[in-house]
Structures are given as structure tokens and as C-alpha cells.
């Protein structure tokens, strides 16, 4: 009788965005509903029925005897980056920096590598897989980032990258980007699910083995998530998102995941012709200070991570002959604005149904937290009534559907930041807590009380 031959394993298909596996190729992922993200993946290895015990690499010790010096954060030389990282980079940590094309990821990390070579006493290695060494050198000349201890390699092969690490013995490794590096031991094309996972796992093992901090650059998809499988975010220790509008010089570095510090910190940078500079006090970028306020403007205080930032909201209410008046926003949530207009109509007796309403923020910032509701409502009411708010006043509070002003977090921190910048009046929700010296805080329990403060004559 002919012998039965084992059937080859059937191929599986995996989504590049969420990692969902299906038995056959489909155009749309059943997990995340994304189109064109299903690729063929390597067949899974059969699970072992029994695993034999092996010798541990290091013996287990009581937790009190574990050395802490090897896990101390080392400063990168850039204060805003250290703020987001929780004090600096930890030896052996793997940091993933994601952002849209052209936002300045490569420029920022080239400056990080330069500062490391300048002040740490150990060399830094910058490996690029997207540009040539000459292109990176031109950028380094423009940003004044040339240093003898900053080494540069243009490689797209993982084995070559590891060879550079052996030759240079750097104190910091930057890989730009992880989607362009290919592992010879993995199947698939560079940037695919299998390749990205294999390259990241190898770099993570390298970082843990040598205590070498590694920074990886990752691309983002159209939806703003990190390109490649979501397991990439679970492999690394820190995930940072570099955000910014190409029409604005402001750049925000947000912490999404951090095993060594807070995951809600924000760092501020400014894109310049000679590189990216950190902005220690960014509140002035979001304000348009004038001696006399114009109707339709209101100032609030947002909290990004643990940092309070002042922001200005501008609104314009104008009559129209159109059957469907326009509602246009920039930097605000359009659904939130529609809710504020409905509350003003019902609870404040301010009709805007036959008028166009435009609302925007100053400086390209985005206000998403409910604490800015009161400022948005007052800006719209100020434009509608043609009554300006005092130039030394801020407004903080969440507006409910019943017209009540709800409490928000960190009111004391917001008021302290406003007082530092010269604001001495504030409209706040009930029970605001301690008020800074020299500031007059007026409690407004509902929207009608806030509108009365707007109509009050000085």
C-alpha cells in the first residue's frame, strides 16, 4: 500500500492593522473593518505537548536585592522628551515613535542622537533604511547635529544593523524606520506583518541582552494608528505619537504607553528652518492677547497630560439667507458644538437656528476635553450678543444638557497657570477648590449664571 504523505499546512491570512487571522483571503478585515490589509502569513508551528525544564540564565533573587542602578533613566538632553519618557530613557528599553510622514520624526531623533553623543560620553548609532547617508548628513548640517561620536549607517538588512552595533558599541540605537528593515530569517516583504514582528522581536532581544536603549520609528496608517500589526505596540516598552499640522509649526509628543513612567504626558516642540526646538512654555502659542477683547472670543485652560495650557476659542455668529445654515469648526468637536448650540437655545434663550456659526481655536490646538464647553458656549453667546468678555477672564467647566455647569479635574492647577500668565478673573463650576492669591473666581452653577456674567456691565 502506498504510504500516506503528510499534507502541507494550509496558509493563513492575517490583518496588518489588528492582527486578526482568517482562513482565506478577504478584501475587508472582519476584525477592524479595514480594506486591503489582509496578507498571507507564515503557517503557525504546532504547539508542543510537553516542555522540558531548562537551566535559567540568571538565578531568581529576592526583589529587595535587585540592583536599581541598571534601571535608572538617563537623560536624552531634550527636556520635553524626558518629560514624556518619565525622566529619560531606561537602559534596555525599546521606544516606538510613530507619526505621519513629514511631521519631523527623523529630525527629532537625529537631534536626540546628537544630544546623546554630545553629553553621555558614549557614541550613538543612527541607522536609516529610508534615506541615504548623504541625505541624512545634509539634514545634520542644516540642524547643526554633526558630532564625531554620532555614527550613521544606511542599512535595510537586520544582520547588517546588528553588525553595526557590534562595530560601534553605541549607548543609543535609532532605527528609522522599523518597516524598512528586513530579517533574512522571516518570510514576507519588508513592512509586512511577519517581517515587522520578526525585526522588532530581534531588536527587543538585543536591547534586553546588552542594556542598550533602542528607538524605533514607525509609520502610521490613514486612521492614525501605528502601521503593522498591533502586537508591535505590545512588544515595545514605550509608545510615543508625534503629532502636528503641516500648516502649523507646533508639534506635540504624546505618550501612549510607558512601562517606566506616566502614559499621559505631552511634550511641545516647534518646527523651525534649522530643526525642531523644544517649547518649554507653550501657552503663548494658543493665545491672541489684545488690550481689549473682541466679541466672540473666550479663553480657557486645557490639560494635556499633567500640563495646563491656556487656549483661546473664537466664534462668529452671522445671519444667512441659506435654508440650512452652516456649522463649521476648526480644532473643536463638531458634535460638541452642536450640543452647545442646542443648550444655548433651550436653556439660555439664544436662538442660532437661522444663523451661521463658525468656531475655531488659535494656534492650531485641538480642544477635545469637556472642560472647554463653557468657553465655547460663552464665545458663541458673546458673538451673538456682540458683548466682549473681559480680557483678564478665563472660563472652565463642562456644560450638561440641563444647562448645569459640572466639575472638571485639576481646577486648581488650571487657575494657577492662568494666574501665572496674568489672568485674575475666572468663571468656574461649583466647589472649585483653592483659588490662587490675587484671582477672583466666580462660581457659575448653570449656563444662565454664566450668561449673566457676560451681560454684566463693568
TrEMBL record:
A GO BP annotation: recombinational repair
Keyword Manganese found: no
Residue ranges of every copy of the RecA family profile domain listed in the record: 70-220
GO MF term list: ATP binding; ATP-dependent DNA damage sensor activity; damaged DNA binding; hydrolase activity; zinc ion binding
InterPro entries: AAA+_ATPase, DNA_repair_RadA, P-loop_NTPase, RecA_ATP-bd, Ribosomal_Su5_D2-typ_SF, Ribsml_uS5_D2-typ_fold_subgr, Rubredoxin_2
UniProt family annotation: Belongs to the RecA family. RadA subfamily.
PANTHER family with a match to the protein in the record: DNA REPAIR PROTEIN RADA, DNA REPAIR PROTEIN RADA-LIKE PROTEIN
UniProt comment concerning the protein's domains: The middle region has homology to RecA with ATPase motifs including the RadA KNRFG motif, while the C-terminus is homologous to Lon protease.
The protein's name in its UniProt record: DNA repair protein RadA
Upper classification of the organism: Bacteria, Bacillati, Actinomycetota, Actinomycetes, Pseudonocardiales
